[in-house]
Amino acid sequence: MKIAVDIGGVVKSMVDDTPIERAKEGIYKCMTAGHQVIFISKCAALYRVKLVEWLMKNGYPHNDVFFCDRPHDKLAIAKREKVDWMIDDKMQVLRDFVGQIRCIWFCTEPHRLDGARHHQPEFVEKVQVASDWSEIIDILLS
Q: What's the rounded Cα separation, in Å, for the pair 52 and 71?
C-alpha cells in the first residue's frame, strides 16, 4: 500500500514548525508494516529546500517528497505515484480525491469537524476522519 502524507498541518505544525505529535512514529509504523510513505505538499518553490531540510532534521524519511504550486495539483501527483491513501488537513484538497483515492482528513479542531458535519455532511461521509496520529494508524493498519 502506498500512503501519501501532506506535510504542513499533518506532520509539521503550521503555527510554529514543531512536529505534530506521534506523526513520525506513525509514519515509521506504516513503513515497518511494509507500506510505502511519500509526501505530497503544496509549497512555494522558495521554501521547498527548507521543508526537506526540516524533514531531515526531524528524522522523517525524505527521499520521496513531491511538491506542487497549487493544492489541486496534489491529485495528479497522487495518481501518477499510484497512491492508495491521501492524508491531508484541508477539506478543499481532499474533495478532489473523493471517489478516486481513499482519504483521511486530519482534523484536530473539533469545531471544524462539527461545522463540516453540519454544513457538508456528504464530504464527511466519504472520507475517514482522524484527530490524531493514533487514529490514522488505526485506519491504515486495521
A: 18
